[in-house]
Amino acid sequence: QNLDPHSPTPMAKTTIYAGLEIGTHKICVVVGEAKRDGSIKILGVGEAASRGVRKGEISDFDKVQTCLNDALVRAEDRSDVMIRNVFLGVSGAHIESLNNIGRYRLPEDQTEITEDDVEEAKEIARNVNIPQQNVFLHSMTRQYIVDGQEAVRQPIGREARFLEADYHIIHGVRGRIQNAIRCVREIPLEVEDVVFNPIAAAQVVLSREAKNQGALMIDFGAGTADFVLYRDGMLTASGCVPLGGDHMTNDIAMALQIPNGRAEKVKVEEGSALYHEVPEGEILQVEDDTGHVIGEIERAFLYEILYLRAQEIFEQVKARCEAHVGHLGAGVYLTGGVSLMKGIDAVARDVFRIKITKVGSAPVSGVTATFENPKYSTPIGLIRYAQILDSEKPFLSPLARLSR
Fold first, then answer.
1. pLDDT tens across 159-199, in order?
2. CA 168 to each of CA 139, 165, 185: distance values in angstroms, whole numbers, following the listed order
3. Which residues of 330-349 are buried (b: 16+ CB within 10 A; e: fewer)?
4. pLDDT given at position 398
5. In this structure, are residues 254 and 229 in contact, taking their beta carbons and an 8 Å threshold?
6. Which position has the higher pLDDT, 168 or 9?
7. For residue 270, which of 287, 290, 289 has the smallest C-alpha distance?
8. Quick check: 380 and 371 in contact, CB under 8 A?
9. Can you list the pairs that 289-293 forms with residues at least 24 positions away whose Cβ atoms lie under 8 Å?
10. Where are the beta strands (DSSP E) in 85-148?
11. pLDDT at residue 223 tops 60
């Protein structure tokens, strides 16, 4: 099967997409088949340990390309698809967002809103000042306001004097985004589109109902905690806190004076953030590969280290969404690799004081069970995003804007 992930197979009405996440801990390529009814079948997943990525950003090109090649070969083998183009997820502390409204007055001789008027209002909304070195990643319509009436989804054909387009705009440093694109193009793979990771993950983690009730999704990874917040069904805030599971590992390594690789093992095998529930005095011994004890730590202290770092990360996310936290009827959804840690939801509850849900990616058919794991939310979300994008075909993709 030599399938180009963008040409539909002649037999069935389906399209094959590939999503690529270059994470701090792992590089993951997911190949999925999007069906007409909106469902997704996962055809294969290729994964490789990630080297050369720090805090969600590429720091060593050659190392990343080697790891990416490994992941790609595995994905192609398992899915039996030749991957030529990918939807690329990006992250990093340089990515910021804002909301902006564009107000347009209809011409005097006209009473009904036309498509041109909508484009005019959009253009005004997108005309915001962002730092000179930055580029738009996403401009997403939140709602239209017609003569002061909010939450209008479809304004064309309505009578009005004024039309306002309300946008959520995500932007980041051009050089850093292009760096990731260049790394992938040299493989060589074509980059179909660039997506901010949590925007992709939210496509499979949050239901429409959760978005309507108000929900904050935190994708807690090794290098970053990415988040998106929906209020009244609208994307209201998004961003990236450059702290994650690696910082927890580092804290353990420092406290115990042991190598990072060993500290990671301790965190994964013994880690929990429930330090209130541990009896005092229980000692945990850390051994090297030969069985020699290279360090020991009181279990309560290990848990406290993890609790304090998780608390700091959640506090930083909360500080960036402060104005909206009181309006989250559906609460906070945790996904990403670190969300697997015992007690992480209890820490989030202490910080946010609202309902906390730990989630994997949404169930999809195919090799399912494995991929309901929260660490696959972003790559599977990229496929869902691609599917939505194709059905909506927006005015201009971020890539077209990048190369202008």
1. 999 999 999 999 999 999 999 999 999 999 999 999 999 99
2. 6, 10, 29
3. bbbbbbbbbbbbebbbbbbb
4. 53
5. no
6. 168
7. 287
8. yes
9. none
10. 85-90, 96-105, 134-146
11. yes
Q: Any idea what DSSP says for residue 76?
A: H
For residue 233, give every residue at least 6 positions away whose Cβ sits within 8 Å of its Cβ, in sequence order, or none: 208, 211, 212
Residue 281 backbone zone (phi > 0: left; psi -120 to 50: alpha; other: beta): left
Q: How many CB atoms sit inside 10 A of residue 78's CB?
A: 16
Interatomic CA distance for residues 376 and 51, integer angstroms = 18
Mean pLDDT, all residues of the chain = 90
> Stretch 347-376: mean pLDDT, rounded?
78
Site of tokens 């088949």: 33
Type and span of the H or E element at 323:
none
CA geometry: angle at 261 spanning 242 and 247, to 5°? 20
Distance separating alpha carbons of residues 138 and 85, to the nearest angstrom: 20
Distance (Å, whole) CA 101 – CA 164 = 6
Residue that has been written with the tokens 């969404």 in this structure:
321
Whether the CB-CB separation of 125 and 101 falls below 8 Å is answered with: yes
